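Researcher: I'm comparing several assemblies side by side, and this is the next one on my list. It has 709 residues spread over two chains. Same procedure as the others: predict the full complex and return the structure.
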Amino acid sequence: MKKRVTLEKKRERAGLLFVAPSMIIFTVFVFVPLIIAVVFSFLKFDMMFNHIEFQKFDHYIKLVQDKRFWNALFNTLYYTVFSVPLLIGLALGAAVLVKRKGWFSSICKSVFFLPAICSMTVVSIVWSFLVNPDVGMFSYWLTLFGFEPVNVLNSPTLAMPAVILVGVWKNFGFNMVILLAGLNGIDESYYEAAKLDGATSWQQFKRITVPMLMPTLSFTIVNAIIGSFQVFDQVYVMTKGGPLFKTQTLVQLIYSTAFDSFNMGYASAIAVALFLITFVASVLTFKRMTKGEEDLA
Amino acid sequence: MKRKILAVVLAAAMVLPMATHVCAEESAEKTVITFWNGFTGSDKETLEALVNEYNETNDKNIEVEMTIMPWDSLYQKLATVLPVGEGPDILAMATERIGTYAEPGAFVPIDDVYEAGIVDESVIPETLRENLKYDGTYYGVPMNFATLLLYYNKTIFEEAGLDPEAPPTTWEELEQYAQQIVDNTDKYGFDMAVKDTTPMWCIMLWGNGGDIIKDGKAVFNSPENVETITRWAENIRDKKFGPEVLTGGEIDKLFESQKLGMYFCGPWATNGFTDAGIDYGVAQAPAGPQEQITQANGVGMYLTSSSKQKEAVYDFFGWWNSKDTQVKWSLGTGFPPARTDIADDERLAENLYIAEFAKSANESKMYLQQLTNFAEVDTQAIVPAFEKILLENADVQETLDEANAVIESLIQ
């Protein structure tokens, strides 16, 4: 009897040891900074951490009245609303297509995945060149067809769609691979049975693929939502938040408040707001997804 | 077995650098000072050669360890290293940013460098000298000093039927020449960058008697400015003199690819354009209705609060501002010397452009100096105003009123 307890304890200890590295990293690099950010958001201090003043809720009151914050929130939502469906839709479509065997789908798989292994900065720089109205390849093609090249990244209306497309182009391959793994996990016998019953491909996709893929899908969707709330790299490289703040996202705003204006306290307040928004959005999506899974089950 | 050997070799490779590092520290009693700056352009080579020369020749066993990185990554790093005392000993950056760092104490006052005669303040160009100070106290010594001139492409001038040896001298001529280039060639005539750039629009504002901040008050929406901006926005946007709202990098690229006839730029571009084989000339900025004036800018070197090597830093400051070093720097980069007493040095005659850039030193002003939040005033008020006017055809008076209020709230 005594021995069994120690064995269990041993197991418990082993388990703790296994999670320890990731817990330590999480604590040092995520949890502690998170707490510090919350504390900072109530303080005001200069670049050298002098003249520390307690601000109560001043930063949050300023936040609610700050039109740059609402503008950045709107832009972030704009990015999310368009990029997530596009990203997941494309990834799912591509996954279904490349699931077939054969050399062509292998090539397609590699090609679609290629952008995912490139750095976002490199991708953004390349795309900035491609669409540049004076030296860009796309602009050159446009002129071949007699169109006037447009400075996409300098246009208040077109800059954001351009940034969205680059993000989708870069990330859909990664999501495709995850979805592909999910697809391969679905037992062929379901499809065989469905075929025997005379189901069309669309019916098979709707009634078998999507429900069976739900756990993987909900993971990729939540991931994509979180990712697009935090979009920064391509905005920073391609437009720096311009023109006219039309592509300034929340993270970009946090960045420029902290590192251009050296207002760490206010930047922390925006970061806390972003954290809450992302948290709520992820929880809601997850809830909805798991409910969807249950309904289907 | 092979694996074991590999493992040992790899382990050794990881430990070895530490060992040599320790050795190096023990053997030499060198004073090492670190120096960060953003001279990534064609001036980089000259700067590296000069710093090497200093390291080899100085008799105090001082070694300057220089790190060159793009300006924007430099500014980003500072926010994390300066507060914890991990910054470099010496920082170089444009003088308009002094206030941002001097006010919270990240830069250290260095009046004594001038009092001790290590750097001679009487030979520093006056515009620059006043802006190495913040609140009446010196924080910097000159690193370089430059003015903007009108660069023009002689090949495009000929193509448009203009005399390549007669650049425009007034606004009217500038407009007329730009129009002629646009009409007769498929090139752009004249343009001014708006963001991430050395300021160009201010040359026009000053030329017509306007300003942005005057005596601590925002005057961006003055009638002169409304007139100036309306006129040049129409030229660029409606008469298609050039693309609207370029960055500094984009406008340089346009000129370098021979698609732009004329623009304002500093001496740092001369080497690059010469190497690219462009047939170009430089001329003084065309005179505005009120004044012939151009924008001057300077990079200073500052002692940071992280440094514990003040003596060594001062020695380098003194050496950098010596006649010899200034002549070499000038020749290598095309920057006019940051000393007024060597303008006629024979050695400088080698470079055709230096004299031309040095000439305008007295007809120049510096942009938005002495602020604690230069970057914010520029990116939150001025750049958006130009974007609105050029991209969205917004009403000039209304836009400037709005921007003026933002500036006022930022500088109060």
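Model: For your comparison table: The longest helix of chain A spans residues 2-40.
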